[in-house]
Amino acid sequence: MDTQDTHGIKGARSAQCTEGAECVEKEKNRANEILEILAEDSRIPPERIAAMLNCPAAEVERTIRALLDENVISFKPIINWEKAGREVINAHIELKITPQRDMGFEKVAKRIYKYPQVKSLHLMSGGYDLALDVEGRTMKEVALFVAEKLAPMEGVVSTATHFVLRTYKENGFVFDDKERDGRQVITL
């Protein structure tokens, strides 16, 4: 039976767990154990996770399904587009925003994250308010997105665009992990 606990994770209760705070805490701990394993390698099948945690595979599958339904996790591959032979331009954009009355930064953020070019959006502390990661096919496409969509938006005070020249590591994935021998070749 599916239930919702007070910790924000809807879960599928295991057969041995029926009710009470102890049961909710056990489910939360199991979900966290599964999350830690998936954070290391999201390709590990539920059967292997179940063996690692000494629990039924069906319980792991129910927990993963609940975590997906709650938007606690998502499975999206990290792609090295350079190696795949596709030209992709990424940019990090800093926005200074005037907070909206009774909405803070939420109203502007919600308008921004709906654009398909926006891959991530963060509220920041420090010299600017919002940080976006944007993807496009060309530098001009990204620049036009900033100039035509972001900069004129109500509440946006200023923008700063930083184009990514090369990605070495993303979400823990090293794009070029081959150790290079820095020694020079000497021929006799």
Which structural class should the secondary elements be placed in? alpha+beta
What's the rounded overall pLDDT mean? 84
The CATH superfamily of the largest domain is identified as Lrp/AsnC effector binding domain/regulation of amino acid metabolism (RAM) domain
Class of the largest domain in CATH?
A: Alpha Beta
Could you characterize the architecture of this molecule?
There is one protein chain. The chain is an alpha+beta fold and about 190 residues long. It has two domains: about 1-70, Arc Repressor Mutant, subunit A, CATH 1.10.10; about 80-170, Alpha-Beta Plaits (2-Layer Sandwich), CATH 3.30.70. The chain contains six helices and eight strands; from the N terminus they run ββααααβαββαβββ. The chain has helices at about 20-40, 45-55, 55-70, 80-85, 105-115, 140-150, and strands spanning about 1-5, 10, 90-95, 120-125, 130-135, 155-165, 170, 175. The longest helix has 20 residues, at about 20-40. It is flat, with a radius of gyration of 22 Å. The model is unreliable at about 1-10 (pLDDT under 50).
SSE topology sketch:
Elements: E1 2-4, E2 10-12, H1 21-40, H2 46-53, H3 57-69, H4 81-84, E3 89-97, H5 106-113, E4 118-123, E5 130-136, H6 139-150, E6 156-163, E7 169-170, E8 173-174
Antiparallel strand pairs: 1-2, 3-5, 3-6, 4-5, 7-8
